[in-house]
Amino acid sequence: MEAQPLRKIIHIDMDAFYASVEQRDDPSLRGKPLAVGGTRERGVVMAASYEARPFGVRSAMPGATARRLCPDLLFVKPRFEVYRQVSEEIRAVFARHTEIIEPVALDEAYLDVTENLLGLPTATAVAKAIRAEILERTGLVASAGVSYNKFLAKVASDHRKPNALFVITPAMGPDFVADLPIGRFHGVGPVTEAKMKRLGIETGADLRAWSLERLKETFGSSGSYYHAVARGIDERPVRAHRIRKSIGAETTFSDDTAAYEVLAERLAPMVDKVWRGAEAKDMRGRTVTLKLKFSDFSLVTRARSLSAPVPDRDSLERIGLDLLKGLLPLRRSARLIGVSLSGFSQGDEEEAPAQLGLGL
């Protein structure tokens, strides 16, 4: 069997993007703990500056909790039009170096630079050039991870944030993954992390010790992914112009509940996350779907389609709550709630071509 050519992948992640844009545009905010969002009733923190993070303030945290942790925390309303404009400037920098760009959000993207447009000798050189150009053009700092696959590039970009460039070579990959705490595996969320730790899986080495069959039995379809990345293997290509059929978010509770007030409160940050994702991709959908998983693991979904795209975040939440009310009274407690937005207008998907290249 012919060996797959070595890919050269860069993952770019802007440091505290929304907060950094606000601090760039308002000098009075610089050097101070800052949160973007969290100003609405039941609102959440969309982004936190690095000055706020030592207090424990994190994205997706309820605004009230963030205020308790950091009484001096400053809040500003998000300006998505500005963030989109800055994101377009950043993507213009990417486009100078490669045509194979997979945006993940306004502040994050994968780049396949196996062959780069400027003929730079290594992927590391490309990453250095991109970071310098972004700083010069926008005044903002980007962290970059360079590796031979998407999983490791993502891990690398986060390894020494902020303002970092880190490279994981093929020789480093398997050992690096072996030492990696399981919570830092992309694709392992808090619920799965807790389950893995209960099973004695604390690091990549622990995960690698499990057979493919056992992982599939325990984690279902995700078992194959965990088996591969525990060995530093990830064959997913960088896909340009990906089609998104839906944008969704869900959360699993530590305690099951059938109370409407509790479910409504837990739905709100999921609505924020979905709307953030839609804003980041400049996408508008007509269909809202609510999902509940019950204590017996049975599922129910309810959907509503509009004649025009959902206009704003509050409308998305209102429709989600209406769908939830339509399920009341619940005959059993729920362990998960989720919401998604779909019905987008999209074009054709293009596959990224396989390419050959030099070292990282």
What CATH calls the topology of the domain at 9-93 and 106-144 is MutS, DNA mismatch repair protein, domain I
Largest sheet: 5 strands, mixed
* Overall residue-averaged pLDDT value: 89
Instruction: Report the count of strand segments.
Output: 12
Based on secondary structure, the structural category is alpha+beta
Q: What form results from the Cα inertia axes? A: globular
Series of H and E elements: EHEEHEHEEHEHEHHHHHEHEEHE
Query: Helical region count?
Result: 12
Indicate the low-confidence ranges by residue numbers.
Answer: 346-358
Estimated share of beta-strand residues: 15-25%
Level-2 CATH architecture of the domain at 9-93 and 106-144: 3-Layer(aba) Sandwich
Helix content: 25-40%
Based on CA atoms alone, the radius of gyration comes out at 21 Å
CATH class bucket of the domain at 9-93 and 106-144: Alpha Beta
EC number: 2.7.7.7
Catalytic activity: DNA(n) + a 2'-deoxyribonucleoside 5'-triphosphate = DNA(n+1) + diphosphate
Site (Substrate discrimination): 18
Subcellular location: Cytoplasm
